[in-house]
Amino acid sequence: MFNLKFFVRCTILCVIFSVLSMGEGHASAFTPEKLMTSIVKKKFRTAKFTETRYISILDAPLKVSGVLHFREPDYLEKHVLLPEEERMIIEGSVLTMQKRDEEKAEVSLDDVPVLKSFIFSIRSVLTGNLAALKKEFTINLIGSERAWTLNLDPKNEETLAVIKRIIVQGRHNTLYSIKTFEEGGDSSVIKINE
Amino acid sequence: MLSLAVAAFLIFSSLTVKADLSFFLPKTEDPALDLLINRLQNNPQSGLVLMALEGDTDEALVKTSKAFRAALEKDDAFQFVLNDNRAVLGEVQEFLFDNRYLLAPLSKEDFSVEGLKGTLQKAVKSLSGSEGILIKKYLPHDPSLQFFKIIKGFKGHRPPPTKNGVWFSKEDHRALLMLQMNSFSGDIEKQKAALSKVEAIFEELRPSSSMKLLMTGAGVFSAQTGARIKMESMVLSIAATGAVILILLLLLRSFNLFLLVGIPLFAGVLAGIAATQYYFGYIHGITLAFGVTIIGIAIDYPLHLIYHRKKDEPAGQAIKRIWPVLLLGVLTTSLGYSAIIFSHFPGLSQLGIFAIAGLLTSALFTRFILPHFVQDIPPEPKRLQQVLDLKFLHHPLRWVFMVGAGISLLALLIYPKIWEDDIAHLSPVAQESIDLDRSLRGTLGAADVRHMVVVTGTSAQDALEKSELLMVKLDAVVTQGGMAGYEMAAKNMPSIKRQKARQAIIPPKKEIVSHMRKALKTAPFKGKIFNVFLKDIERARLQTPVTIENIPDSILKTKVENFLFQEGLDTDGNPQWIALVLLKDVANPALLAPLNEIESLYYFDFKVSSNTLIQEYQDEAFFWLYLGFGIVCITLFVFLRKQGGIKMVALILLPILMAVICTVATLVFILGVKLSLFHLVALLLVFGIGLDYSLFFTIHSKDSAEDRAETSRAVAVCATTTFTVFAILSLSTVPILRGIGLTVSVGVFMMFLSVLSASAPQGEKK
Prior knowledge:
By secondary structure, chain A is α+β, with helices and mostly antiparallel strands. Chain A has an 11-stranded antiparallel sheet. In chain A, helix 3 packs antiparallel against helix 4. Chains A and B meet through helix 1, strand 2 and strand 6 of A and helix 6, helix 7 and strand 4 of B.
């Protein structure tokens, strides 16, 4: 019953950060290993984002915007400002959600093993742990350092039932978009302005 | 002899022995309240077992918890096993979704154009919020998110902590599980079987000998306690019987004499069992064990016969001589016991019946049958006379007792805390089990059953309807901060009446379709996606209301059934339904008190109520004790009016009262005991025993020094056996048995010394 998709979405944020945090590697062959190394070097703090959700039951796409925060070692916050203020925080293995005028809701990621492994593996991107990332996704890095695309295909069946593919795109050490393709045809695009 | 054996066979073959906790549970004037206490103590969630694994590495505990759950799930004896926060709704999700418009409230305005507009606006907001991804699948069917309102009602305030997905208490290093057994309705034997199965399953997959399985819950308690009581009753009564046999054989040095002493007691026990079985339809294991101990004092009767018989005097003549005193003793003791027959503790009234029937039978047997059994009683062994010549004690002790009793009385009157005021301390459940239960309940967030409202009704629907009326009042208390919330069956399963009222609010399809069309004009949704909603709402309007029977087997169903059940009959003999309402974190009970004024409703703070009950029983017990005391005084006076009247009565009673006071003081000040109803009952027994002793001493004090010596020897033997029996009983770990054992052993000791010291000088003066 738990909000699986939502969690997956949160983990996507982690991906964003991971890629946002890329360092300025100038090595000859561009590999996921290099990407990871540069990620460890870059300390990301705050970035603005806009998200567009393409939902089949709506006439027009929905727009959501706000700010993302990251703090070492494992604090991640998505602060939505429009259309309705809302905060989502992942710290350690606890997820906290708070809407204006509503009570805080707290969930332990332990209770949702699929997402726990998902989020933890993404977090391992932030800490440069490629092995953990490879455990959860089939990784495919294409393009060059100037313009690269990282395709993440979930390996886990349960995750696959929610998310088909995540595509992260960037230039050098700057990440600019994350596209999520959901089961059922809906999708979303998050654009980041650091 | 043969007839006794036949009687024994007949009685034992028809015997129903119980070993549950009912012995310790008070009955009240109010049948509904009784029922509740019964249900609370024995049944509600009684199939629910909280389990903890400990004593290994965290990883091993987590792994075993998963394997344990899987193994238990395969067994039919268990309804469900839980060890994580996932899928708590499971199978019922579909049921809840299908019936969402009957299970949660909607208002008429929700179906107007404006209402629907508002709903759609909210829906768009939800889609852009964090929950958007979750709800979008449901929105076309359920634009007002009715289904999520229902689910919200199920979620606990804070889920239990987990490790690697399973419940785990990090402080105690325990993996936790919750098990619902099938064997429900308080059937101890079935529950025990199921519990042993749990243990066997654990044994099988236990990875190390250090890992332990802990279990708590009402069912576990009664199984554990029942087994302990049974074992203790057995071990202690065997030990006591053995000790008495040994003492008697040692003192009497004759097997014939021993038999002579034993037979009236045996007859008494048979009569006690028969009377209790006849009167109550069953006999409790404790009544049996403890009753035998109580009427063990019946061996005093033949002992008196043996010791008071003069040389070469035929038994028949000797018994005739001592019979008046013996009869007076038996009658007064029995009158004392009649007080507890009216007690609200079924165990105590059983004991009362058992004791009276047993004592009277033993006495009558000694008087009328025993002399025919043995025409010639062997003479009392010589050496005993020397051993038991206790003259040296007589004089100085009297003053010690007078001063001691005076000081004790004063101290007892001043000292404020001599009474036990917490019923929990009387519970036979071991303290460590209670502590464990509290800790597991705390971690798992399982409801504890201290504050509750009981709603009674003539049918399930009636009880539900009344619960629904109550909701308004309870909600008001929550708003005023009187409590955090409440749980009841009606919250999950509304009455048919309420469901029909909800259906009546839903407008016919045509009307909603037109309203929806208007509302959609201002909303960004694609045109026809809400057709499924229109279809669903029309179905809801016309469907048959659901009842508990429609809920698929699930935790939800079990929960509703635990909160709503048929139990017993009401005062008119109709089946009675009970809906329990558990109140959470009650901060201000005064706000709830007015609920008691509503008919067929009881607000109940279990702790306060049961402690109040205990208080009431104590007051009541005092009343009966005083009455019994009065009756004893009058009886004594009537019998003794020609032998000294009031002065004689005072002479008999004074040493007894002194001994009782000294006993209470010893218990309270030296042994640190808090007195309860059960100590009072034990004092009653002490009083009866003392009366026997005192009667013999005082009335026989007119006799020669030789006679007095006989009396003191007879009483010494009686006191020794009684003391031994109850000293053994005081080794029990069951608080009530230990209390009674302590009281009587201390009491008999005091009584013997007091009566002995008081009587002797009196005799010397005359």
